[in-house]
Design brief:
About 55% of the residues lie in helices and about 10% in strands.
């Protein structure tokens, strides 16, 4: 067995030993019965754990196997020459080896691992593949932490052959090439490089890592935040000689599992990143302040794209975006797209005067908050706040733009955002806004006339059915159902079956609104003229009537309040629509809830029809 084979065997033995239990098995006799325990030393303290009888033989075999492997490793290490520590002064770049790596990885030993960590682990400890492993994604997504976790689980033998290189903007590919050759000459097997895309010539010469060093058996892991640069590298230099692992997307399930934090609010607060400051992954929260948030978006996305384009093929990949870059407006265009990421990527989005959609959404959400509603954002100087946000994000309005933006610019920016996996097309399903019309159809005069005719026809059909066809009305039950009830039911059937054209429905709605808005007052005057006020005066002189009125109103309020709570409706609004609307007029207007009129119509028309049927039966049968 030559030297290299002995080193490989020693590393394999250390790995096998780490999976087997240490210590010994002891026996205790209690009340004549024998019990077996696993005894080992941990942190200078003796520990014991009971071994079930059915697991004893297997556990004993594992203990013996560990002892055999430890003896073999001890004999093998006697044959190996003592490892010489690397001469760090001979390196040009920032290289860490040996004990420095153990200290580098010490603080992450207790961290939980991301789900994608297994892919990195399998590459580092698997068979040589003549490929490099690329770990890329936006900042604060766990890339460097996973590298440190790899070092943390290495045995002493493996760590002695591992190196970590922290690349800086002043480093060049020639510097890294020289240091890698020095590490290879000293027998280093694992080299992990962080922030490699900071090198100006990385994209053009990345094939060096796979064709020279990985091909010689060295495990090379490249990491960095410049995701676009890695994608250009794969396309132009590495081809199929690299394995890509993208860390940007962190689902809520993984966020909760890794960080041990429960709650969607925290996930949103930290932007779906591994940035819970001081708890698990990073020292400071990326989104703890406005400044850090702006800095993250600016460097992680806008400047990421510009750095890659500048370094790629001697700046030849800017294409139509070069003018924006040279005029200093590319950051503005990219940030505008990021701000409007929930909207279509169109020329209008880029060239319109900028307006923060998040500000409007926040104001709406605060007004509708169930626990602490507030209109504080309605009272701010919107123009001043919008202008401040625009300046912080380096977004220029149309009048300030030196280069005219067109659809080609928009398409190229979207292309780069797609490559970074920052965009996702989602089919949105939502309930209609009940405060607006259900249709955008503009009714014509003919539609209004058709709507009026529809109402007249439905009334006559309902009248005909009630008088001549209805089985209930002709069964001599002692009561009959009112014509209006049949009319409401007929209209509901027509609406539910959706057999009426939208323009006819719009015309019918228009006629209904016309009568409510313009005919209610004349009808109320007519009713008032024909009303005998003496009848109303009798109500207040008869306590029974007052009790009935109070019972009706209070019963409607309490009943709909309870039912509304059961179905998770707003109880007060349930009282207004389903309760009081059937007992009075003008309740929605007085409560400033006119947008609930469509719900009130359902409760009044359909619910009223049901009550009419029930009342017809009760009054006809018993009164």
């Amino acid at each position: 067995m030559d030297l290299s084979e002995m080193k490989i065997r020693a590393a394999e033995l250390e790995r096998l030993i780490s999976f087997l239990p240490a210590g010994s098995i002891t026996k205790k006799t209690v009340n004549g019965k024998e019990y077996f325990y696993h005894r080992w030393t941990e942190n200078k303290k003796r520990r014991e754990k009971y071994i079930p009888a059915d697991e004893l033989e297997n556990f004993r075999a594992q203990i013996e196997r560990r002892k055999e492997l430890e003896q073999e490793l001890k004999a093998l290490k006697k044959q190996l020459p003592k490892a010489k520590s690397a001469n760090l002064s001979a390196f040009i770049t920032n290289v860490r080896t040996g004990k420095a790596l153990r200290s580098f990885a010490a603080s992450v030993r207790g961290y939980r691992r991301r789900e994608c960590f297994r892919q990195l682990h399998d590459f580092v400890y698997g068979e040589p593949q003549d490929k490099v492993f690329i770990l890329y994604g936006l900042r604060r997504t766990g890339k460097t932490t996973m590298i440190r976790q790899i070092f943390a689980e290495m045995s002493d033998t493996e760590l002695a052959k591992a190196a970590f290189i922290q690349i800086t903007a002043k480093d060049t590919l020639a510097d890294v090439n020289r240091d890698l050759k020095a590490l290879e000459a000293q027998g280093f097997r694992y080299v992990l490089l962080d922030e490699v895309t900071l090198m100006e010539d990385f994209i053009e010469g990345a094939a060096l890592f796979s064709d020279v060093f990985a091909a010689c058996g060295m495990k090379i892991v490249l990491s960095g935040t410049d995701s676009l640069g890695f994608l250009f590298t794969e396309d132009e230099q590495l081809y199929d000689r690299c394995i890509l692992l993208h860390t940007t997307f962190i689902p809520y399930r993984e966020f909760e599992s890794v960080l041990g934090i429960h709650g969607i609010d925290e996930y949103i607060r930290y932007g779906g990143t591994m940035s819970l400051g001081g708890v698990h992954y990073n020292e400071t929260s990326t989104f703890a302040s406005k400044e850090s948030t702006d800095e993250y978006v600016d460097t992680a996305i806008a400047r990421n794209i510009q750095h890659s384009l500048r370094c790629y093929q001697y700046e030849g990949h800017f294409r139509h975006l070069r003018d924006l870059y040279e005029k200093g407006e590319l950051t503005s265009a990219i940030n505008r797209v990021v701000e409007d990421i929930n909207h279509r990527f169109t020329l209008e989005v880029l060239s319109q005067d900028w307006k923060s959609h998040d500000l409007g959404i926040s104001a709406s959400n605060l007004r509708r908050d169930r626990k602490n509603p507030t209109d504080i954002l309605d009272r701010i100087d919107l123009a001043l706040v919008t202008d401040s946000l625009r300046k912080l994000l380096e977004i220029r309005n149309r009048a300030e733009q030196a280069v005219a933006l067109d659809d080609v610019h928009a398409a190229e920016i979207k292309e780069y955002l797609d490559l970074l996996d920052l965009t996702q097309k989602i089919d949105v399903l939502h309930l209609p806004n009940v405060s607006t019309k259900s249709s955008d159809v503009k009714p014509t005069a003919a539609d209004y006339a058709t709507g009026l005719a529809l109402g007249v026809v439905c009334f006559n059909v309902a009248n005909l059915y009630a008088k001549h066809i209805s089985i209930i009305n002709h069964a001599n039950l002692g009561f009959s159902i009112h014509t209006f009830a049949f009319m409401v039911i007929l209209m509901a059937i027509l609406n539910m079956t959706n057999i009426l054209p939208e323009n006819v429905k719009a015309g019918a709605r228009g006629m209904q609104q016309f009568f409510v808005k313009y005919m209610s007052f004349p009808l109320m005057i007519t009713v008032g003229i024909g009303t005998n006020l003496t009848d109303y005066a009798k109500v207040f002189t008869n306590p029974a009537y007052i009790v009935i009125i109070m019972a009706t109103v209070i019963g409607a309020m309490i009943g709909t309040f309870i039912v509304g709570k059961l179905f998770h409706f707003y109880p007060v609004e349930g009282m207004l629509t389903a309760g009081l609307c059937m007992a009075n007029g003008g309740g929605l207007g007085a409560a400033h809830r006119m947008e609930l009129m469509s719900y009130a119509q359902i409760s009044s028309r359909i619910g009223g029809a049901i009550m009419l049927v029930i009342a017809s039966f009760i009054f006809g049968k018993f009164l």
